[in-house]
Amino acid sequence: LLTGRPNDAVNYFSRAAESDPNYKTSYALRESVWTYLGRAYYETGKYPEARTTLGQALASDKNDYVALLNLGMTFVRSNDRDRGLVEMEAALNGIHEWLENLASDSSVGNYWDTNKQIRKNIESGLAGKPSAIELVVTAQRVGKQLEEEIDRAQRDNVQSLYRQPR
After folding, report:
1. I want to staple 33 with a disulfide (CB 3.0 to 4.6 A). Which of 23, 67, 70, 76 is the partner?
2. What pLDDT, in 10s, does the model give residues 26-44?
C-alpha cells in the first residue's frame, strides 16, 4: 500500500484479514487490518468495498481515526459529500486530540509530531469553511504524515534507548 501498489495491497490485506481478523498494529497509532484493507480499496477506487471494510474497522474500534478519515474520503468520492465532510472533520479533530494527549505521555509522546506539523496542518485544514475537495487534500496529507510519523517515531524511540546510559 505504501509503495503505490494498492491492488497488491488488497490481495495481501484480504489474506491477512482472513488469517487474523482481529490484528492491530503494535504502534502507538493502533490500526487494524481492516483499516489497511479499507485504505487499499479506497486507493483502487473500490468505494463500496472501502465503505464496508472501513466500517468493520470502526465497529471494532470507534477511535480508529485513520479508518474514519478514509471513510470520510470514501464518502466524498462516492458523492456523499455532506457525510464525508462530517466524518473527515471528526477524524481530523480526533487525530489532533490524540496527538495532544500523546504529547503528555513522556514515554511515547516525546517521539510523535515533535514539531507539531501534523497538528498545524489539521488546524489550517479545518480553518474557515473548507470545501470537500480541500478537506480531502488535508485528509490525504495528514494520512501520509501519520504513516511517515509511525516510522520516524519508532526510529527515534529505538535510537534513544541505545543512547541511554546502562
Report:
1. 23
2. 777 788 999 999 999 999 9
Distance between terminal CA atoms of the chain? 39
DSSP 65-129: HHHHHHHHHHHHHTT-HHHHHHHHHHHHHHHHHHHHHHHT-TTTGGGSSTT-HHHHHHHHHHSS-
Question: What cell was used for 13?
Answer: 490485506
- Residue 108's pLDDT is what? 66
CA 9 to CA 95: how far, in whole Å? 24
Q: How far apart are CA 116 and CA 100, in angstroms?
A: 9
Q: What is the DSSP string of 42-57?
A: HHTT-HHHHHHHHHHH
